[in-house]
Input
Amino acid sequence: MGARKAGWRVPAPLTRLSSTLLGGFVIRVAGWSMLIVAALTAIGYSTIYDREERDALEQLKAHLLERGRTESAIFQLAAANMDTFRDRFLSLYANPDILPEPDFDAFFQRGEDGATRLRREYFDGKVNQDGLLQKGMSGFIGANQKIIPPELQRRLILSYHLLAEYGPAWHNRFINTTISTPENAMLMYWPSFAWGLAVDANLDMTAFSVVRSTMMAENPRRLPVWTPLYHDHTAKAWMVTYQLPVDYQGKHLINASHDVLVNDLMDRLITDHLPGTYNFVLAADGHLVAHPLWMDRLRTELATINLERLGDAGLLRTHALIRDSVNQRHADPGPDDNVWIVDDTVDGAYLAVTRLQGPDWWFVARYPKTLVAAKAHQAASAIMAMGMAYFLSMLALVIILLRRQVAGPIRQLTVASEQVAAGEYAAVADGQTPLPTTVRHEIGLLARSFQAMAARVRDSADSLAEQIALRTEALDAAKQQLQEWSLHDSLTGAYNQQAFDADLRGVFDLGRRQGKAAFALVLADIDDFQTYNTAYGSAAGDQVLRTLFRAVARQVGQGDRVYRHEGARLAIILTAPEPALLEAQVRQILEMVAAMALPHQASPHGIVTLSAGLARFDPTMTSPADMVRQADQRLQAARQGGRNRLVA
Output
């Protein structure tokens, strides 16, 4: 009994056991509860972030789709008007009975400066033969046109009548309607400015890019032309010009055009945007059309600004991102070709882009990712607050229940444990020491078990010794298993470099002792593996490594081993009884890998292949390094020889 008493050691006064246990339990409950609240908050944040991101992008796309339609409407209307003008003009021009000999001089007169201009009364106001007042018209034929052929006269008079008919109807949306000719003539309906009367007589409009861009030589495909954005001093407004070349039987007759005001677009750019976002317009050719941060500079320049000259690195990068996305969409168009999202990872923003129908402009809305994060943070904070309130309530309830139902029984168990520690097993086993054995929960079960333990404690020492022996045996087995695992590569499952060095030294020494070619070494590389990783990603590269190593391991003979040697390199120690079979066996491995047909677009073969070098053991070799060096040299020869081959 005395020996048994001496074997028990109590680390601290057990009278404090209940408070220590309860305190530790409460701390653990609090810790785990906090972890659960944090985990739920993180999950909620991630879920809400994804939802907010999805909703924000859908809202942004819907907003930009509507804005794109709104801003494109005026450009589409300009094109539709000019199509109407062209069709009407050609139907009149093609009928020789319509104005065969117009009274040109009743409309035009040549001035002392040599230019021919539409008479003043057609701008100020003139009553036509129908009794209708016509005004707002001016026209100009440059002084370089000394002779005005009848056909040109007819073209101009026909154009005048059509401008007088259509111009007033279109004036509510367009500042003017104009026709120009390749003979340096222009007619214009512009009630607020008599351009044809004020222009310089020697002006050659065909020498400037606006009219020149419609000429046959400059525009052989006869496409409509949009000018860049500019600020008109006369109209005091931002505008672009739309010109439609009109040809008949291969002859360039006129250009029908509108000057399109974009002041409203510039104003809406500043005011009409989603909260926290802003809009801007870029031209595909690398010019800034409109931007809320650069409006003063644009007004100073009175035209679009080349981004290179502007020097805004952010806008240059944004233009490159959008240009790349446009090229990608042209190569692989998606289901929605009107609005698309560009992820600006550098600036932490989403760019919603739509192309305005007309000028080659990109309308862009910038949505900072911080807006999504702010909404997610707000929702996550609410989740955290509710979780903490629930946690504190439950913690208070747990403390109350523990004090009432756990602390007293634990104190009884503490007294009993002190007696057991003192060797007084009979007092506990016979029930002389009070224990909560009648309690119907886990503590009662513990008390009954503790009482039964006291009766069997004498037999525990033997059982403990037996358990120690079993544990020692299990630890030895685990140690052996760990040692075995230490020899394997974690990614491929093949033997690792440590196993390779040891095994190669073993078979090399055996070959030296036997004095014969007992084995061979193969070093093999996956061809173009670095380009495979670049093209498909490191995860795909890891999968290829696992696949090939396992396939090769199944292919080698019994007793042979496959090792991962330096990254993507395989090492194989072959022990075929017949040396002549070694080369054939390696070729079968290379053919098996090629037959797997794993795609590799960056490889000249189009699939994943192996190149290998074979070195047979030679008793004259001084160390395993000689074999490795020889196999590596032959591997390099195989790679230089075109890959997917063996050099033995």
